[in-house]
Design goal:
5-stranded mixed sheet; Cytochrome p450; binds protoporphyrin IX containing FE; 3-stranded antiparallel sheet; about 400 residues
Amino acid sequence: MNTATEPTGDLGLPAYPAARSARCPLDLPAEYAQWRLGDGLQKVRLWNGETAWVVTRHEDVKFVLSDQRISADTLRYPRMHPSAQQQVPAFPRMDDPEHARIRLMLTKDFTVKRMEAMRPQVRALVDRFLDEMTAEGDSADLVESFALPMPSLVISLLLGVPYEDHAFFQEHSVTINQPDVTPQDKGRASAELFGFLMELVRRKQREPGDDLISRLIAERVETGELKPEEVAMNGLVLLIAGHETTANMIGLGTLTLLEHPEQAAVVRDSDDPKVVAGAVEELLRYLSIAQDMIWRAAHEDLVIGGQEVKAGDIIAVNLPAANHDPSFMENAGVLDIGRNTRGHIAFGYGIHQCLGQNLARVELTEALPRLLRRLPGLRLAVPLEEVPFRGTMAAFGVHALPVTWWANPTT
Ligand code: HEM
Protein backbone atom coordinates (compact mmCIF):
# COMPACT_ATOMS: atom_id res chain seq x y z
CA MET A 1 0.00 0.00 0.00
CA ASN A 2 1.23 3.47 -0.77
CA THR A 3 0.89 5.51 2.43
CA ALA A 4 2.59 8.65 1.22
CA THR A 5 0.23 11.53 0.51
CA GLU A 6 2.24 13.35 -2.14
CA PRO A 7 4.01 16.49 -1.01
CA THR A 8 2.01 19.61 -1.79
CA GLY A 9 3.38 22.15 -4.19
CA ASP A 10 4.74 19.48 -6.54
CA LEU A 11 4.53 20.92 -10.00
CA GLY A 12 5.28 17.60 -11.71
CA LEU A 13 1.76 16.27 -11.24
CA PRO A 14 -0.30 15.62 -14.36
CA ALA A 15 -2.89 18.26 -15.20
CA TYR A 16 -6.53 17.29 -14.83
CA PRO A 17 -8.83 17.03 -16.73
CA ALA A 18 -6.44 15.39 -19.22
CA ALA A 19 -6.64 16.29 -22.89
CA ARG A 20 -8.08 13.93 -25.51
CA SER A 21 -6.21 13.23 -28.72
CA ALA A 22 -7.09 15.74 -31.48
CA ARG A 23 -6.91 12.91 -34.04
CA CYS A 24 -9.18 10.46 -32.16
CA PRO A 25 -11.31 12.64 -29.88
CA LEU A 26 -13.69 9.80 -29.01
CA ASP A 27 -10.82 7.84 -27.42
CA LEU A 28 -10.13 8.47 -23.75
CA PRO A 29 -6.98 10.36 -22.80
CA ALA A 30 -4.13 7.83 -22.95
CA GLU A 31 -3.15 8.54 -19.32
CA TYR A 32 -6.24 6.84 -17.91
CA ALA A 33 -5.09 3.31 -18.80
CA GLN A 34 -1.81 4.04 -17.04
CA TRP A 35 -3.52 5.51 -13.97
CA ARG A 36 -5.59 2.33 -13.53
CA LEU A 37 -2.39 0.37 -12.89
CA GLY A 38 -0.64 0.19 -9.51
CA ASP A 39 -2.72 1.60 -6.67
CA GLY A 40 -5.37 2.76 -9.10
CA LEU A 41 -5.43 6.34 -7.81
CA GLN A 42 -3.53 9.18 -9.40
CA LYS A 43 -2.70 12.48 -7.80
CA VAL A 44 -3.30 15.35 -10.22
CA ARG A 45 -3.18 19.12 -10.41
CA LEU A 46 -6.51 20.86 -11.06
CA TRP A 47 -7.22 23.97 -13.14
CA ASN A 48 -7.28 26.03 -9.92
CA GLY A 49 -3.81 24.85 -8.87
CA GLU A 50 -5.17 22.50 -6.20
CA THR A 51 -4.50 18.78 -6.09
CA ALA A 52 -6.95 15.88 -6.14
CA TRP A 53 -6.98 12.08 -6.40
CA VAL A 54 -8.45 10.65 -9.59
CA VAL A 55 -10.17 7.28 -9.22
CA THR A 56 -10.13 5.25 -12.43
CA ARG A 57 -10.91 1.60 -11.69
CA HIS A 58 -14.49 0.31 -11.90
CA GLU A 59 -14.39 -1.34 -8.47
CA ASP A 60 -12.78 1.68 -6.81
CA VAL A 61 -15.32 4.07 -8.35
CA LYS A 62 -18.18 1.99 -6.96
CA PHE A 63 -16.46 1.98 -3.58
CA VAL A 64 -16.02 5.77 -3.58
CA LEU A 65 -19.63 6.35 -4.62
CA SER A 66 -21.01 4.14 -1.88
CA ASP A 67 -18.73 4.59 1.16
CA GLN A 68 -20.22 6.86 3.81
CA ARG A 69 -16.81 8.21 4.82
CA ILE A 70 -16.74 9.95 1.45
CA SER A 71 -18.94 13.00 1.00
CA ALA A 72 -20.64 14.65 -1.96
CA ASP A 73 -20.56 17.94 -0.05
CA THR A 74 -17.41 19.30 -1.70
CA LEU A 75 -18.55 22.89 -1.05
CA ARG A 76 -17.39 22.39 2.54
CA TYR A 77 -13.84 22.37 1.21
CA PRO A 78 -12.73 25.87 0.29
CA ARG A 79 -9.67 24.58 -1.58
CA MET A 80 -12.02 23.06 -4.13
CA HIS A 81 -14.30 26.06 -4.57
CA PRO A 82 -12.33 29.05 -3.23
CA SER A 83 -15.18 31.51 -3.33
CA ALA A 84 -18.20 29.45 -4.15
CA GLN A 85 -21.22 30.24 -2.08
CA GLN A 86 -24.58 28.66 -2.45
CA GLN A 87 -27.63 30.44 -1.14
CA VAL A 88 -29.53 27.21 -0.69
CA PRO A 89 -27.91 23.76 -0.63
CA ALA A 90 -28.59 21.54 -3.65
CA PHE A 91 -29.38 17.87 -2.93
CA PRO A 92 -26.73 16.40 -5.31
CA ARG A 93 -24.17 18.01 -3.00
CA MET A 94 -25.74 16.67 0.21
CA ASP A 95 -25.09 13.44 2.07
CA ASP A 96 -27.80 11.23 3.53
CA PRO A 97 -30.05 11.65 5.45
CA GLU A 98 -30.51 15.28 4.18
CA HIS A 99 -30.01 14.15 0.57
CA ALA A 100 -32.55 11.31 0.85
CA ARG A 101 -35.14 13.64 2.38
CA ILE A 102 -35.20 15.81 -0.76
CA ARG A 103 -34.54 13.09 -3.34
CA LEU A 104 -37.46 11.00 -2.09
CA MET A 105 -39.81 13.91 -2.79
CA LEU A 106 -38.80 13.74 -6.46
CA THR A 107 -38.39 10.04 -7.27
CA LYS A 108 -42.07 9.43 -8.05
CA ASP A 109 -41.85 11.98 -10.88
CA PHE A 110 -39.06 10.00 -12.59
CA THR A 111 -40.12 6.34 -12.33
CA VAL A 112 -39.92 4.07 -15.40
CA LYS A 113 -43.73 4.08 -15.54
CA ARG A 114 -44.02 7.88 -15.44
CA MET A 115 -41.31 8.31 -18.05
CA GLU A 116 -42.71 5.62 -20.36
CA ALA A 117 -46.05 7.45 -20.16
CA MET A 118 -44.22 10.49 -21.59
CA ARG A 119 -42.84 8.50 -24.55
CA PRO A 120 -45.58 9.54 -27.04
CA GLN A 121 -45.05 13.20 -26.09
CA VAL A 122 -41.26 12.85 -26.46
CA ARG A 123 -41.75 11.12 -29.83
CA ALA A 124 -43.98 13.96 -31.03
CA LEU A 125 -41.37 16.54 -29.98
CA VAL A 126 -38.59 14.58 -31.71
CA ASP A 127 -40.67 14.60 -34.90
CA ARG A 128 -41.52 18.27 -34.50
CA PHE A 129 -37.86 19.32 -34.25
CA LEU A 130 -36.90 17.02 -37.13
CA ASP A 131 -39.73 18.48 -39.25
CA GLU A 132 -38.53 22.00 -38.52
CA MET A 133 -34.90 21.12 -39.18
CA THR A 134 -35.56 19.41 -42.51
CA ALA A 135 -37.95 22.16 -43.64
CA GLU A 136 -35.05 24.62 -43.53
CA GLY A 137 -32.80 22.83 -46.03
CA ASP A 138 -30.59 19.78 -46.32
CA SER A 139 -27.90 20.62 -43.78
CA ALA A 140 -27.89 21.92 -40.20
CA ASP A 141 -26.07 22.13 -36.93
CA LEU A 142 -27.64 19.12 -35.27
CA VAL A 143 -26.88 20.43 -31.77
CA GLU A 144 -28.67 23.71 -32.31
CA SER A 145 -31.59 22.32 -34.31
CA PHE A 146 -32.26 19.06 -32.51
CA ALA A 147 -29.95 17.71 -29.79
CA LEU A 148 -30.24 20.75 -27.49
CA PRO A 149 -33.81 22.01 -28.03
CA MET A 150 -35.56 18.64 -27.74
CA PRO A 151 -34.44 17.73 -24.16
CA SER A 152 -34.64 21.42 -23.15
CA LEU A 153 -38.29 21.52 -24.14
CA VAL A 154 -39.03 18.17 -22.46
CA ILE A 155 -37.57 19.22 -19.10
CA SER A 156 -39.16 22.68 -19.38
CA LEU A 157 -42.59 21.09 -19.88
CA LEU A 158 -42.04 18.68 -17.00
CA LEU A 159 -40.97 21.42 -14.61
CA GLY A 160 -43.28 24.13 -15.87
CA VAL A 161 -40.43 26.44 -16.98
CA PRO A 162 -41.43 28.72 -19.89
CA TYR A 163 -39.52 27.46 -22.94
CA GLU A 164 -39.16 31.06 -24.17
CA ASP A 165 -36.41 31.38 -21.54
CA HIS A 166 -34.35 28.50 -22.97
CA ALA A 167 -31.46 30.67 -24.25
CA PHE A 168 -31.04 32.12 -20.75
CA PHE A 169 -30.92 28.78 -18.92
CA GLN A 170 -28.82 27.04 -21.60
CA GLU A 171 -26.11 29.73 -21.50
CA HIS A 172 -26.03 29.77 -17.71
CA SER A 173 -25.80 25.96 -17.55
CA VAL A 174 -22.78 26.02 -19.82
CA THR A 175 -21.04 28.55 -17.55
CA ILE A 176 -21.82 26.55 -14.42
CA ASN A 177 -20.51 23.29 -15.91
CA GLN A 178 -17.33 24.61 -17.48
CA PRO A 179 -14.27 23.64 -15.40
CA ASP A 180 -12.07 26.62 -16.26
CA VAL A 181 -14.62 29.36 -15.51
CA THR A 182 -13.67 31.39 -12.43
CA PRO A 183 -15.59 30.56 -9.25
CA GLN A 184 -16.86 34.17 -9.30
CA ASP A 185 -18.38 33.74 -12.79
CA LYS A 186 -19.84 30.37 -11.86
CA GLY A 187 -21.28 31.89 -8.69
CA ARG A 188 -22.81 34.77 -10.68
CA ALA A 189 -24.35 32.42 -13.28
CA SER A 190 -25.83 30.17 -10.63
CA ALA A 191 -27.17 33.14 -8.61
CA GLU A 192 -28.89 34.52 -11.74
CA LEU A 193 -30.38 31.16 -12.59
CA PHE A 194 -31.52 30.73 -9.00
CA GLY A 195 -33.18 34.18 -9.12
CA PHE A 196 -35.01 33.14 -12.28
CA LEU A 197 -36.29 29.95 -10.63
CA MET A 198 -37.26 31.82 -7.45
CA GLU A 199 -39.34 34.22 -9.51
CA LEU A 200 -40.99 31.26 -11.23
CA VAL A 201 -41.82 29.63 -7.86
CA ARG A 202 -43.44 32.89 -6.67
CA ARG A 203 -45.49 33.05 -9.88
CA LYS A 204 -46.62 29.42 -9.50
CA GLN A 205 -47.61 30.06 -5.89
CA ARG A 206 -50.11 32.57 -7.31
CA GLU A 207 -50.99 30.68 -10.51
CA PRO A 208 -50.29 26.94 -10.21
CA GLY A 209 -50.03 24.77 -13.32
CA ASP A 210 -49.90 21.04 -14.04
CA ASP A 211 -46.17 20.63 -13.54
CA LEU A 212 -43.54 19.39 -11.09
CA ILE A 213 -42.77 22.77 -9.51
CA SER A 214 -46.47 23.49 -8.89
CA ARG A 215 -46.89 20.00 -7.38
CA LEU A 216 -43.92 20.52 -5.04
CA ILE A 217 -45.46 23.80 -3.91
CA ALA A 218 -48.88 22.24 -3.29
CA GLU A 219 -47.63 19.02 -1.69
CA ARG A 220 -44.55 20.16 0.19
CA VAL A 221 -44.44 23.93 0.69
CA GLU A 222 -47.95 24.18 1.96
CA THR A 223 -47.26 21.34 4.43
CA GLY A 224 -44.10 23.08 5.64
CA GLU A 225 -41.77 20.29 4.42
CA LEU A 226 -39.99 22.51 1.88
CA LYS A 227 -39.27 26.21 1.74
CA PRO A 228 -39.97 28.04 -1.55
CA GLU A 229 -36.17 28.51 -1.93
CA GLU A 230 -35.69 24.75 -1.75
CA VAL A 231 -38.27 24.23 -4.50
CA ALA A 232 -36.40 26.79 -6.63
CA MET A 233 -33.10 24.99 -5.99
CA ASN A 234 -34.61 21.61 -6.92
CA GLY A 235 -35.95 23.23 -10.09
CA LEU A 236 -32.51 24.62 -10.88
CA VAL A 237 -30.82 21.23 -10.36
CA LEU A 238 -33.34 19.43 -12.57
CA LEU A 239 -33.29 22.09 -15.25
CA ILE A 240 -29.50 21.99 -15.59
CA ALA A 241 -29.12 18.23 -15.18
CA GLY A 242 -32.13 17.54 -17.38
CA HIS A 243 -31.14 19.20 -20.62
CA GLU A 244 -27.37 19.44 -21.02
CA THR A 245 -26.38 15.83 -20.44
CA THR A 246 -29.06 14.39 -22.72
CA ALA A 247 -28.26 17.00 -25.37
CA ASN A 248 -24.60 15.98 -25.29
CA MET A 249 -25.55 12.31 -25.50
CA ILE A 250 -27.72 12.93 -28.58
CA GLY A 251 -25.02 14.99 -30.34
CA LEU A 252 -22.13 12.71 -29.48
CA GLY A 253 -24.21 9.53 -29.85
CA THR A 254 -25.17 10.57 -33.40
CA LEU A 255 -21.56 11.36 -34.25
CA THR A 256 -20.40 8.02 -32.85
CA LEU A 257 -23.00 6.12 -34.87
CA LEU A 258 -22.00 8.02 -38.02
CA GLU A 259 -18.42 6.89 -37.35
CA HIS A 260 -19.70 3.27 -37.06
CA PRO A 261 -22.05 2.98 -40.08
CA GLU A 262 -22.77 -0.78 -39.76
CA GLN A 263 -23.97 -0.28 -36.19
CA ALA A 264 -25.92 2.85 -37.19
CA ALA A 265 -27.69 0.69 -39.80
CA VAL A 266 -28.73 -1.78 -37.08
CA VAL A 267 -30.20 1.03 -34.95
CA ARG A 268 -31.96 2.51 -38.00
CA ASP A 269 -33.39 -0.75 -39.38
CA SER A 270 -34.28 -2.67 -36.25
CA ASP A 271 -37.90 -2.78 -35.20
CA ASP A 272 -36.97 -4.47 -31.93
CA PRO A 273 -37.02 -1.91 -29.09
CA LYS A 274 -34.58 -4.14 -27.16
CA VAL A 275 -31.95 -3.73 -29.87
CA VAL A 276 -32.29 0.06 -29.76
CA ALA A 277 -32.29 0.07 -25.94
CA GLY A 278 -29.13 -2.09 -25.94
CA ALA A 279 -27.45 0.27 -28.41
CA VAL A 280 -28.28 3.26 -26.19
CA GLU A 281 -26.79 1.52 -23.11
CA GLU A 282 -23.59 0.75 -25.02
CA LEU A 283 -23.36 4.35 -26.26
CA LEU A 284 -23.85 5.54 -22.68
CA ARG A 285 -21.05 3.23 -21.48
CA TYR A 286 -18.69 3.85 -24.38
CA LEU A 287 -19.04 7.63 -24.29
CA SER A 288 -19.52 8.04 -20.51
CA ILE A 289 -20.18 11.71 -21.10
CA ALA A 290 -20.20 12.63 -17.37
CA GLN A 291 -16.44 12.82 -17.74
CA ASP A 292 -15.55 15.38 -15.06
CA MET A 293 -18.84 15.92 -13.28
CA ILE A 294 -18.37 13.81 -10.19
CA TRP A 295 -16.39 15.11 -7.25
CA ARG A 296 -16.21 13.87 -3.71
CA ALA A 297 -14.23 14.65 -0.55
CA ALA A 298 -12.88 12.26 2.09
CA HIS A 299 -14.36 13.03 5.53
CA GLU A 300 -11.90 10.70 7.24
CA ASP A 301 -8.53 9.13 6.52
CA LEU A 302 -9.18 5.96 4.52
CA VAL A 303 -7.71 3.61 1.93
CA ILE A 304 -9.09 3.51 -1.61
CA GLY A 305 -7.70 0.76 -3.84
CA GLY A 306 -4.21 0.57 -2.42
CA GLN A 307 -3.84 4.26 -1.69
CA GLU A 308 -4.17 6.08 1.61
CA VAL A 309 -6.30 9.20 1.29
CA LYS A 310 -6.43 11.86 4.00
CA ALA A 311 -9.49 13.56 5.47
CA GLY A 312 -10.22 16.65 3.37
CA ASP A 313 -8.64 15.26 0.19
CA ILE A 314 -10.62 15.90 -2.97
CA ILE A 315 -11.51 12.92 -5.17
CA ALA A 316 -12.34 13.13 -8.89
CA VAL A 317 -14.48 10.17 -9.92
CA ASN A 318 -13.60 9.29 -13.49
CA LEU A 319 -16.56 7.44 -14.98
CA PRO A 320 -15.11 7.08 -18.52
CA ALA A 321 -12.00 5.34 -17.17
CA ALA A 322 -14.13 3.06 -14.97
CA ASN A 323 -16.49 2.11 -17.81
CA HIS A 324 -13.44 1.32 -19.97
CA ASP A 325 -11.69 -0.70 -17.27
CA PRO A 326 -10.63 -4.04 -18.86
CA SER A 327 -11.35 -5.82 -15.58
CA PHE A 328 -14.99 -4.70 -15.96
CA MET A 329 -15.41 -5.15 -19.73
CA GLU A 330 -13.40 -6.83 -22.45
CA ASN A 331 -12.42 -4.69 -25.44
CA ALA A 332 -13.96 -1.76 -23.62
CA GLY A 333 -12.48 0.73 -26.09
CA VAL A 334 -14.55 -0.75 -28.92
CA LEU A 335 -18.18 0.22 -29.56
CA ASP A 336 -20.29 -2.95 -29.74
CA ILE A 337 -24.02 -2.25 -29.53
CA GLY A 338 -24.79 -5.97 -29.23
CA ARG A 339 -22.79 -6.48 -26.04
CA ASN A 340 -24.08 -6.97 -22.51
CA THR A 341 -23.39 -3.67 -20.73
CA ARG A 342 -24.80 -4.73 -17.36
CA GLY A 343 -23.03 -2.93 -14.53
CA HIS A 344 -21.99 0.16 -16.53
CA ILE A 345 -21.94 3.28 -14.40
CA ALA A 346 -22.56 6.03 -16.94
CA PHE A 347 -25.39 7.24 -14.67
CA GLY A 348 -23.23 6.98 -11.56
CA TYR A 349 -23.66 4.56 -8.69
CA GLY A 350 -24.99 4.54 -5.15
CA ILE A 351 -27.29 7.09 -3.55
CA HIS A 352 -26.59 9.86 -6.10
CA GLN A 353 -27.18 7.66 -9.15
CA CYS A 354 -28.90 9.73 -11.83
CA LEU A 355 -32.46 10.62 -10.90
CA GLY A 356 -33.35 11.37 -14.53
CA GLN A 357 -31.96 8.19 -16.14
CA ASN A 358 -35.40 6.82 -17.10
CA LEU A 359 -36.22 10.09 -18.82
CA ALA A 360 -32.82 10.15 -20.58
CA ARG A 361 -33.41 6.59 -21.83
CA VAL A 362 -36.83 7.49 -23.26
CA GLU A 363 -35.37 10.57 -24.99
CA LEU A 364 -32.38 8.70 -26.44
CA THR A 365 -34.32 5.64 -27.61
CA GLU A 366 -36.72 7.97 -29.42
CA ALA A 367 -34.25 10.54 -30.76
CA LEU A 368 -31.47 8.37 -32.20
CA PRO A 369 -33.44 5.83 -34.27
CA ARG A 370 -35.97 8.41 -35.49
CA LEU A 371 -33.20 10.73 -36.64
CA LEU A 372 -31.48 7.90 -38.56
CA ARG A 373 -34.75 6.68 -40.08
CA ARG A 374 -35.95 10.12 -41.14
CA LEU A 375 -32.56 10.98 -42.65
CA PRO A 376 -30.98 7.78 -44.01
CA GLY A 377 -28.34 9.81 -45.85
CA LEU A 378 -27.24 11.64 -42.68
CA ARG A 379 -23.50 12.36 -42.56
CA LEU A 380 -21.00 14.87 -41.25
CA ALA A 381 -20.81 18.05 -43.30
CA VAL A 382 -17.19 18.69 -42.24
CA PRO A 383 -14.19 16.43 -41.60
CA LEU A 384 -14.17 14.92 -38.09
CA GLU A 385 -11.13 17.06 -37.16
CA GLU A 386 -13.24 20.20 -37.65
CA VAL A 387 -16.00 19.16 -35.23
CA PRO A 388 -15.68 21.31 -32.07
CA PHE A 389 -15.52 18.87 -29.16
CA ARG A 390 -16.24 19.82 -25.53
CA GLY A 391 -12.90 18.27 -24.58
CA THR A 392 -12.45 19.32 -20.94
CA MET A 393 -15.98 20.29 -20.01
CA ALA A 394 -17.77 18.52 -17.17
CA ALA A 395 -20.02 16.78 -19.69
CA PHE A 396 -18.28 15.58 -22.85
CA GLY A 397 -20.02 16.34 -26.12
CA VAL A 398 -19.81 18.56 -29.18
CA HIS A 399 -20.45 22.31 -29.23
CA ALA A 400 -21.85 21.94 -32.74
CA LEU A 401 -22.40 19.07 -35.17
CA PRO A 402 -22.58 20.21 -38.80
CA VAL A 403 -24.48 17.52 -40.71
CA THR A 404 -26.03 17.15 -44.13
CA TRP A 405 -28.50 14.69 -45.65
CA TRP A 406 -28.73 15.84 -49.27
CA ALA A 407 -29.09 12.99 -51.75
CA ASN A 408 -25.96 12.72 -53.89
CA PRO A 409 -27.18 12.65 -57.54
CA THR A 410 -24.24 10.40 -58.56
CA THR A 411 -25.21 7.61 -56.15
C1 HEM B 1 -27.04 12.60 -11.24
C2 HEM B 1 -25.48 11.32 -15.65
C3 HEM B 1 -29.66 12.86 -17.60
C4 HEM B 1 -31.00 14.53 -13.27
C5 HEM B 1 -26.29 12.08 -12.27
C6 HEM B 1 -25.03 11.40 -12.09
C7 HEM B 1 -24.59 11.07 -13.33
C8 HEM B 1 -25.58 11.51 -14.29
C9 HEM B 1 -23.29 10.37 -13.68
C10 HEM B 1 -24.34 11.13 -10.75
C11 HEM B 1 -23.70 12.36 -10.15
C12 HEM B 1 -22.96 12.09 -8.86
O1 HEM B 1 -22.85 10.97 -8.39
O2 HEM B 1 -22.43 13.06 -8.29
C13 HEM B 1 -26.48 11.63 -16.55
C14 HEM B 1 -26.42 11.34 -17.98
C15 HEM B 1 -27.60 11.77 -18.52
C16 HEM B 1 -28.39 12.33 -17.44
C17 HEM B 1 -25.26 10.66 -18.68
C18 HEM B 1 -28.09 11.73 -19.95
C19 HEM B 1 -27.73 10.88 -20.84
C20 HEM B 1 -30.41 13.41 -16.60
C21 HEM B 1 -31.72 13.98 -16.74
C22 HEM B 1 -32.08 14.47 -15.51
C23 HEM B 1 -31.00 14.20 -14.60
C24 HEM B 1 -32.54 13.98 -18.03
C25 HEM B 1 -33.34 15.19 -15.06
C26 HEM B 1 -34.45 15.06 -15.25
C27 HEM B 1 -30.02 14.16 -12.36
C28 HEM B 1 -30.07 14.52 -10.95
C29 HEM B 1 -28.92 13.97 -10.37
C30 HEM B 1 -28.21 13.28 -11.43
C31 HEM B 1 -31.13 15.34 -10.26
C32 HEM B 1 -28.49 14.06 -8.90
C33 HEM B 1 -29.04 12.87 -8.14
C34 HEM B 1 -28.65 12.83 -6.69
O3 HEM B 1 -27.68 13.46 -6.28
O4 HEM B 1 -29.34 12.13 -5.93
N1 HEM B 1 -26.62 12.11 -13.61
N2 HEM B 1 -27.67 12.25 -16.28
N3 HEM B 1 -30.01 13.57 -15.29
N4 HEM B 1 -28.91 13.42 -12.62
FE1 HEM B 1 -28.36 12.73 -14.42
